[in-house]
Amino acid sequence: MKKFLLAVVLGCILIGSGSAFAGDGRNSVAVAGGLAWPENIDATWYVTAGFRFHVDDNWAIEPDFGYWKQNEAEVFPNVTYSLSDIHVGGNVLYIGSWGDIGMYGGGGAAAHWRKREAERDLVPPTNPTLEETRLGLQILWGLDIPIAHSVDFTVAIRDDFIFRDDDLDMQTVFKAYGGLRFYFN
To answer: Confidence class of residue 34 from pLDDT cuts 50, 70 and 90?
Structure first.
């Protein structure tokens, strides 16, 4: 899975960088990395990529995907488990600016494919695995800071609200990340 995700991220960089200098378009592709803070779990690394398509001067649609994994999500007596999350979703963004700095905020929804692997230090040893798909809602806010023609440094914060059960119980995952945004026509 790590190799597949790395190939997708590298593909996005190549596609974006090949067309980034083709013109001064407003559509873009971004790749970023940072930290994720899942509720009740220690912080871990996070990678994401997204494509932004403007529908008018101030509104854009941004499909995105991301991945994080915590190798020791919880440690109980004799039990350790890891948790990973892959999400694919989309956001509706309001785009503004403050001088040369672009600002954006909005929200959307995503499907989260989650996998939990547990190790139990028991006799006999047991290793139950749980894979599930959950719906999540997300809000985000960020800045695009120009660094070159058709390339920005982008930073963002976002909060994912992932539904756990039918009674609308949620897990929140706060994320902060930065990366590069490449513009194309």
So the answer is: very high
